[in-house]
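Hi everyone,

Forwarding the result from last night's run.
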Amino acid sequence: MTDLQFGFSLTPTIDIALHHDLVHAAEEGGLDLVGIQDHPYAPTLLDTFSLMAALLVRTKRLRFFPDVTNLPLRQPAVLANTAASLDLLSGGRFELGIGAGGYWDAISRLGVPRLTTAQALDAMEEAMSVLRALWQQDGIVRLKGDYHSVEGVPAGPAPAHPINIWIGAQGPRSLRLTGRIGDGWAAPIPSYLPYEKWAGANAVIDAAATAAGRDPADVLRISQLVGTVTDHRGDAEARTGSAPVRGTPDQWARLIARLATEQPYRAFVFWPEVQSVEQIERFAREVVPAARRLVEKTEPAS
């Protein structure tokens, strides 16, 4: 299906040569997306946005997104400029995944005041308003919030394309926020949100989008699947629990096809248990084409 998107998640270690090889394999294999985790408090990891800039320069087609931005450590007015700059430099190949903040012990050690979950979600909603206002072509932005404010700031630079904001939502309130104002849901990996909760989470997003007068289909659902593509059949049902998916390309394809037909997922991001070119190539060249064929057989022609 032409509207399905596929990608992989990259952990920004200091093995820069490996990142170049992984991204090259993804682009050559026809993948669409690369998500890069964002953990600014981790001294063993590179800065996500710096790495993304370097990789965007070396690619022509892949779209990149932080998976997801640690918003408490990324001031939104500055983040707006960074995001627009990356989009302009890449010819419109940047999207923005954001999260309200999960590791508050690590975040607060960097001098950021600890917020409750409710406060962090309020702050994220304010930040989204700041981002979208500053991405306009022109005008003066004045927004007053409890956590984020801008006072008479000129808008711009405008990005090369309308940047999507994909929210890494987990709890009911953040899921409702996603349905109400998000462009997409970067679903948490199953260790944070077990498989059996995925359908219910999608239903919450659907209901919130409908209540806000939106078409739920306008909220892109991104399934993030941790696992390994193997030569031998394994456990690839992914119906309950949080165990990684380990199975043959055919098993992976059937899982993706089920998620694309039984639930509203339209994008699938592969999180390899071990980052290797071999795993990216197998996902791109063996899993993705088979999944597309299965979905085409299942979904009615439009």
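The chain has a mean pLDDT of 97.

Cheers,
N.
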